[in-house]
Amino acid sequence: MVDKNGKLFGKINLIDLLIVLILAVLVTFVALKVVNKSEENAGLTQVRISFFAEEVPDYVAAALKEGASVLDSKENVTIGTVERFETGDPLGFETDTKGEIQAVQRQGFKSLSLTALAAARPGEHGVTIGGVLYGIGHTLTIYAGNAKLYLKVSGIEPVS
């Protein structure tokens, strides 16, 4: 099969054949990635995801800005952009000396409602963004611009 000159069947150089095969595999891989990306974006709809945090430090709330990118820090998925946010009185709780839970308002903290706009694939159990399923009650840590927040998904609705 291979002659003394390193040619397959006396016509094809083995090194040239390997280079052609590697190039063919690379072209196929890139083509499949491009096709999968376009299929991945098909079926996405615009949704409004609401988040809520009982207590965030004042300085974190002050760092929020509308239009900032929202990133899920654990999954490294960009969820969307901050549409709006609102602060209120903090909703803290602690146990008193009798073992009863009491509401407290700590100084230097606020509650936070944040709404983000996202492109997502709706499903039976919530919405999928970047391959990650998000549902109401989902707890996560996000970056919203320079602010890092630990909060819960409090609502998901399609944008009309």
- What is the terminal-to-terminal distance? 67 Å
Largest sheet: 6 strands, antiparallel, barrel
Question: Overall pLDDT, averaged?
Answer: 88
Helix content: 10-25%
Shape: elongated
Radius of gyration: 26 Å
Percent strand: over 45%
Report the uncertain regions.
none
List the helices and strands in order.
EEHEHEEEEEEEEE
**Global structural class:** alpha+beta
How many strands in all? 12
Number of helix segments? 2
- Which strand order does the major sheet show? 3-8-5-4-11-12
Care to describe what's here?
The protein has about 160 residues and is an alpha+beta fold. It is built from two helices and twelve strands; from the N terminus they run E-E-H-E-H-E-E-E-E-E-E-E-E-E. It has helices spanning about 15-40, 60; strands spanning about 5-10, 10-15, 45-55, 70, 75-90, 90-95, 100-105, 110-125, 125-130, 130-135, 140-145, 145-160. The mean pLDDT is about 90. It has a six-stranded antiparallel beta barrel with strand order 3-8-5-4-11-12. The chain has a two-stranded antiparallel sheet with strand order 1-2. About 15% of the residues are buried.
